[in-house]
Amino acid sequence: MGRFASGVAVATSVLRGHDVALTVDTLTSVSLDPVLLLVSLHNEARVLEGVLEGSPLGVSVLAARQRGLAEWLGEPGRPLHGQLARIPHERGQVTGVALLTGVLASFECRTYALHEAGDHTIAVVEVVGMLAGPTDEPGLVHYRGRLGELR
Length: 151
Fold this sequence. Notes:
By secondary structure, the chain is mostly beta strands. Helices cover 10% and strands 48% of the residues. It has one domain (6-148): Pnp Oxidase, Chain A (Roll). GO terms for molecular function: FMN binding; riboflavin reductase (NADPH) activity.
């Protein structure tokens, strides 16, 4: 799948009272009515733990200039506390979940369905709030094991 380019986003949830975040590159639109997204989360991800405990899910679509942020949030073993302490973010108006600022788009979501799939869980989530960012910036893309932008 390394030869299939995919956009990069950050998924957020709340686990035991702490914001947790994870870089994801499996994000797709599933339905327009209701508006559903699919996000694939590793079974050991803290973001998934939060979702399983009932937390809403935030999805922030990254711009190419946010590569460093994607790399930081993609590193395993980050401490539970303060994952977003130095990352600009705001609270979603509908669910209160953390949404990164300066992104291309962000979505507040509630769980619609969860499906176990090997070492990941496919989260189908319903969009309950959305913010659009700048439309003229290139998005961050994952291709052949690297992060970059399409030219």
